[in-house]
Specification:
single chain, mainly beta, globular
Length: 125
C-alpha cells in the first residue's frame, strides 16, 4: 500500500482544513487508517484513527471535538477534517495504514506498516 497525503496549508486561528490520504492497492478497505503529526522539535504524536468499516474511531484528547476522521473506501481515501484550529496544531501531518493493528495499539507509530510523506499544516495567530 502506498499513501499520498495532501490538503495542508496556512490557515488562521479558528480556521479549518481537510487533509486527504489517498491509498493505492485493493486491500485499502481492510486497513485501519490513522493520522499522526510532528511539530518542530517534538516527537511524532497520534492524532486520530479509523477502523476499516468506519465504525470505530479514536482521537487524541487534544483534538477531540475539533477534528473528525473519516474514510471513503470506494475512493481509497481517508480524511481528517480539522476545525477550530489552534497554533499548537501546527505540524507536519502524516497518514498511516495498518492491516493488523488492534484497538489497544492504534495510538502507537510502530503499529503501522505504511506511511505517507506528510503534509504541512501551519496555523497563524
Amino acid at each position: 500500500v502506498q499513501l499520498q497525503a495532501s490538503g495542508g496549508g496556512l490557515v488562521q486561528v479558528g480556521g479549518s482544513l481537510r487533509l486527504s490520504c489517498v491509498a493505492s492497492g485493493r486491500t485499502f478497505r481492510s486497513y485501519t487508517v490513522a493520522w499522526f503529526r510532528q511539530a518542530p522539535g517534538k516527537e511524532r504524536e497520534f492524532v486520530a484513527a479509523i477502523r476499516w468499516s468506519g465504525g470505530s474511531t479514536f482521537y487524541a484528547d487534544s483534538v477531540k471535538g475539533r477534528f473528525t476522521i473519516s474514510r471513503d473506501n470506494a475512493k481509497n481515501t481517508g480524511y481528517l477534517q480539522m476545525n477550530s484550529l489552534k497554533p499548537e496544531d501546527t505540524a507536519v501531518y502524516y497518514c498511516a495504514a495498518s492491516g493488523s493493528v488492534i484497538n489497544t495499539s492504534v495510538r502507537y507509530e510502530a503499529s503501522y506498516e505504511y506511511w505517507g510523506q506528510g503534509t504541512q499544516v501551519t496555523v497563524s495567530s
